[in-house]
């Protein structure tokens, strides 16, 4: 009934307008940066660019992609994202499978995992452990400390638990061991959740910058996120070890914008796939009967 | 005799399970539990050369210093202020937004809005910090517009008060969309017959929202709210670190950025660890408390 009242129709119109405005506000900054990155240098520094390129050209991109340091850090990021995701998913899957079984050690292992979510040694002790293990300036420093993702493991465990036990019992009857039932029953049945968690892990690795800043001492070997961070925070010279000459070229507005956009591009590309999965995946762990 | 044999064969049968989880256990031990032992340096005058075992013991003096040194007191206060503002806003704004989105009937439009508002959540603060420092700087587009409107320039990132406002508002902007997911999920679980009954009794849509939708959300809101309590000392390291500069250290510095600067930049390992331990300990107490409350209010359990 209420849908026919005039007041409700006014509300619907107002609501649709408001929601549209808010949604646009969420991507406007990104559009602005994209517009600046495709504008001429002079138009950008004169603040003539809003949400459409002025003096369209792609020079900033060619200059960015010709910069060997940038390319190298891009490569580092790809390497880190792929190896880190692979390692972390392997650990997530095996640990989640074990935690989804009923056996005598389960309670202990569960607490061993959960306690790390409640308490941690903090920045300095963790830094000293990584340094003392001689991982500094290696790829291991970026992928090992975060390899076990407790949150993802719990989510994966919930997925595994939803799979009917009868399937595994039948496999056991036929002589299959744990590893075999994990690989031939559980993994094929949870491909969508595996894809979701892998995407989340990839986004996490791509976006991580702080470990690069503290564990990699030579800026030429930074992963992209760390490299971008030092460029953007370039005003505070104490935080960077990039020589001023390089910094000058890199910190030009259009070039910086193109770098930001290239850094965001992989996320924008996988976002449609992420979005299809995450609503289901997130609410699944939250609701219990 | 039978018992032990049975026990042993059970153990052999379960051995693969222990082996499968072993790599994760080693990982957690090395990078999560082993560093906890390093917390002992909060009570020492730690010298890397001497190690944990031989560095001189100083007891609680770092903690005494922390609560009397004006800088660290200010930092704790900044953290509490920024974090509690964020927590309050990040509960209120998503609820209102979810209620508005719930009124949309056209599925296409709903999807469109959701796609756009969830996006900022997935971009890192490095990217967003880069965009914001460019747009909000004194040569940025926002101040350019303000100038054209005849207004004075605003130092969003150079003035302490404005910095705090910028931090809270940009955090809402990044996270509000994603935070609506849990409320939308709860709303989709509301029994439609409740709305029909309310309508029979002559309730307007507004009244239905207040007397049907909101009460149904209360358990979720309580759970989200209590769990957020555990974050009262997490004011957002990534965000602050990518936005701040020496001009706003006084009003914008939080525990995590402070620990980074005095610990890793200035090399005061022990004092930084003490500040970090204070944060972790308060966090632990609050999280345990929050989980107990959440369990009581909403039957929420992680396992």
Automatic annotation (TrEMBL), chain A:
<feature type="transmembrane region" description="Helical">
    <location>
        <begin position="140"/>
        <end position="160"/>
    </location>
</feature>
<feature type="domain" description="ABC transmembrane type-1">
    <location>
        <begin position="74"/>
        <end position="271"/>
    </location>
</feature>
<feature type="transmembrane region" description="Helical">
    <location>
        <begin position="81"/>
        <end position="100"/>
    </location>
</feature>
<dbReference type="InterPro" id="IPR035906">
    <property type="entry name" value="MetI-like_sf"/>
</dbReference>
<comment type="similarity">
    <text>Belongs to the binding-protein-dependent transport system permease family.</text>
</comment>
<keyword id="KW-1133">Transmembrane helix</keyword>
<keyword id="KW-0472">Membrane</keyword>
<keyword id="KW-1003">Cell membrane</keyword>
<dbReference type="InterPro" id="IPR000515">
    <property type="entry name" value="MetI-like"/>
</dbReference>
<dbReference type="Pfam" id="PF00528">
    <property type="entry name" value="BPD_transp_1"/>
</dbReference>
<keyword id="KW-0813">Transport</keyword>
<protein>
    <submittedName>
        <fullName>ABC transporter permease subunit</fullName>
    </submittedName>
</protein>
<keyword id="KW-0812">Transmembrane</keyword>
<feature type="transmembrane region" description="Helical">
    <location>
        <begin position="181"/>
        <end position="204"/>
    </location>
</feature>
<feature type="transmembrane region" description="Helical">
    <location>
        <begin position="107"/>
        <end position="128"/>
    </location>
</feature>
<feature type="transmembrane region" description="Helical">
    <location>
        <begin position="260"/>
        <end position="279"/>
    </location>
</feature>
